[in-house]
Amino acid sequence: MERSTRQRSAIRDAIAAAQRPLLPQEVLDAAQAQVPGLGIATVYRNLKQLVEDGELQTVELPGENVRYEPVGHAHHHHFQCTACDRVFDVHACPGNLARLAPEGFTVETHELTLYGRCRECQPPQKNRPGAAITGRA
Known about the structure:
This protein has helices at 6-18, 24-31, 40-52, and strands at 56-59, 67-70, 77-81, 87-90, 113-116. By secondary structure, the chain is α+β, with helices and mostly antiparallel strands. The chain has one domain (6-121): Arc Repressor Mutant, subunit A, CATH 1.10.10.10. The strands form two sheets. Strands 4-3-5 form a three-stranded mixed sheet, with no helix packed on it. It has a two-stranded antiparallel sheet with strand order 1-2. A hairpin with a 7-residue loop joins strand 1 (56-59) and strand 2. Helix 1 crosses helix 2 (24-31) and helix 2 packs across helix 3 (40-52). The termini are far apart. Residues 130-137 have low confidence and may be disordered.
């Protein structure tokens, strides 16, 4: 196990504060608040070491770059925003999906990714409850 450094601490802090899986560039952007001279190569090297040390785990979505989150989450799934591409944890599960498998097949594990728009990327809603409704006469 390598010694802890300011860079590694900033990377850990960035991932913990985000409370969602981060891309290496997102880790770099957040960690630079603590270590302004931090570079992407250092981020990649530390992410690799933190995964090897069992502190982080990878989140791999089809067609996407690997993201990182802390180890220790209970079984969960992910939501990817189709507008900003950020990924968020979904701490719910539809349960045993074995009934969806073809007859005679055994389900050993599953992954589920929901796609849509996150709260920040929602288009403005018209006629929201409590909003004034205007119409043409």
